[in-house]
Write a structure and sequence with these properties.
This protein is of the alpha/beta class. The chain folds into two domains: 227 residues, 3-Layer(aba) Sandwich (Rossmann fold); 216 residues, Rossmann fold, CATH 3.40.50. The strands form four sheets. Strands 3-2-4-1-5-6-7 form a seven-stranded parallel beta sheet, sandwiched between helices. The chain has a six-stranded mixed beta sheet with strand order 11-10-12-13-21-20. Strands 14, 15, 16, 17, 18 and 19 form a six-stranded mixed beta sheet that branches. The longest helix has 22 residues. One of its GO terms (biological process) is cobalamin biosynthetic process. It comes from Nocardia veterana.
């Protein structure tokens, strides 16, 4: 049975979706529900707050990065032991990837597309400031724009007064939409912002927990939770995504499924080329902590399913684990922690030496910056002969990329969808081959292939590229075997 869901959408960005969704997750959990939290799109930050509220990892549903066919399986995987799910949308309900050449009836990657794939009802969050009776016309448009979307109710946000709320309730009733709650204006309730959006929950520490608690209290006091639970539903059905099957079910039939799902597997893949147990579970060190917060839960699950033992460490204060055979440097905000990263000189030296020695390294965005000579004047690992600088220009958007060379992740010519999200730029020629090429929004050669390092600004979703994860773990296994002489 598919877990029932409610999709939190809005007419536009800035309407209060994150506050409402986070508070709703927390309030429903407090009411006794096991809530699975999801975010539409490639966002890494909102799921962190969702996770605090739910007590379980927040996950993403992005048809662009993983393919529409994987949305329902990933949803079922992420909600498999829950009785309710809350899916926070992205931007406005019908906003998605813009394709000037062939605009789709429903924008790819939009909240509307995900709601339709799940067969889940939409709860529309409306910023009530400036609205009166004309709200009825706006709601009528959203309710009738696409017959494949079921608008199940409205949440009025930032209501000015009881009289204002009453006027808006009448407007909603005029178009037959129930109001499931009304939140008063709470200017003091906010989540801190940064140049790329909100500040990740892990960086905000105790204040993030306090903010989530305040959101939970607000929603619990002003939203009809019973009505939300009754509204929830999901008509779509498909087998749940499984990381072991995604990597290669035939090669890994005996893998400890619980270990794979936790991303800490120590069991080797089966097959004619299986290695002895001593070297078949390579240690993959994954950077975490405040500087490296961008990632997907499925990444660790797939690494575990491919036979790796995943160990998370904090490059601000820690060293790579003993026996590391592969390094994953995900995205995040290293520019906010450049001085502290630079202060951990033993790790910088070790990473540079490991790269030269041939250790497989997968670096995305923040990871790319960590491998440069310097970041805003602070020394970095120096694996790549370029410098990184923070700038005023935001680079943002999906990319249809082609691998320009063989690497520990992709073969030359493979096509991949990714997402750029940064305000830094690189200076210097470097001596590495480019990792990616794409044509839109302009002809671009990007990233770096050097030694067995794959470094790029491009964020990819592992669930959309399980073969790349298996290839990476295979390279780590070879590196470990060569180092121990068991090859």
């Amino acid at each position: 049975m598919t877990t029932p869901a409610v999709v939190i959408a809005a007419p536009a960005s800035g309407s209060g979706k994150t506050t409402l969704a986070t508070g709703l997750i927390g309030a429903l959990r407090r009411a006794g529900h096991r809530v699975a939290p999801f975010k539409v799109g490639p966002d890494y930050i909102d799921p962190g707050y969702h996770g605090l509220a739910a007590g379980r990892p927040g996950r993403n549903l992005d048809p662009v990065l993983v393919g529409a066919e994987r949305v329902v399986p990933l949803y079922r995987h992420g909600s498999r032991d829950c009785d309710l799910a809350v899916v926070e949308g992205v931007m406005g309900l019908f906003d998605g990837r813009i394709d000037d050449g062939n605009p789709a009836p429903v924008a790819e990657g939009s909240t509307a597309q995900v709601a339709a794939l799940l067969g889940a009802p939409v709860l529309l969050v409306v910023d009530a400031r400036g609205h009166s009776q004309s709200l009825a016309a706006l709601l009528h448009g959203f309710a009738t724009f696409d017959s494949g979307i079921r608008l199940g109710g409205v949440i009025l946000n930032r209501v000015g007064s009881p009289r204002h709320e009453q006027v808006l309730r009448v407007a909603c009733a005029r178009v037959g939409l129930p109001v499931l709650g009304a939140l008063p204006r709470m200017d003091e309730l906010s989540v801190p912002a940064r140049h790329l959006g909100l500040v990740p929950a892990v960086e905000h520490g105790a204040a993030a927990h306090a903010a989530v608690e305040a959101m939970t209290e607000l929603v619990g006091a002003h939203i009809d939770l019973g009505a939300v639970a009754r509204l929830a539903g999901a008509r779509a059905d498909a087998p749940a995504w499984d990381p072991i099957d995604a990597v290669d079910a035939e090669r890994v039939p005996d893998l400890d499924r619980a270990s794979a799902l936790s991303g800490t597997s120590t069991s080797p893949p089966r097959g004619a080329n299986s290695r002895p147990a001593a070297d078949a579970a390579p240690i993959v060190a994954m950077a975490g902590g405040p500087a490296f917060t961008f990632g997907y839960a499925e990444h660790r699950e797939l690494l575990g399913a491919a036979g790796a033992q995943v160990v998370v460490f904090d490059p601000l204060h820690e060293q790579m684990p003993t026996g590391t055979a592969g390094l994953v440097l995900p995205g995040g905000f290293p520019e906010e922690h450049a001085a502290d990263l630079a202060a951990n000189e033993p790790l910088l030296t070790a990473v540079a030496a490991a790269a030269v020695d041939g250790m497989p390294v997968h670096a995305e965005c923040a990871g790319l910056l960590y491998l440069t000579r310097s970041l805003d004047g602070h020394r970095m690992a120096g694996v790549l002969d370029v410098a990184a600088e923070f700038g005023p220009r935001l680079t943002l958007g999906y990319r249809d990329a082609v691998a320009l060379g063989d690497s520990v992740l992709w073969r030359a010519g493979e096509r991949v969808r990714g997402h750029e999200f940064h305000r830094t730029r690189l200076t210097g020629d470097g001596a590495s081959a480019p990792a990616w090429g794409w044509h839109a929004p302009g002809p671009t050669r990007e990233g770096a292939l050097l030694h067995r390092v794959h470094a790029s600004y491009l964020h990819t979703h592992p669930a959309g590229n399980p073969g790349a994860i298996a290839r990476f773990v295979g390279a780590c296994r070879e590196f470990a075997a060569a180092r121990t002489g068991t090859r």
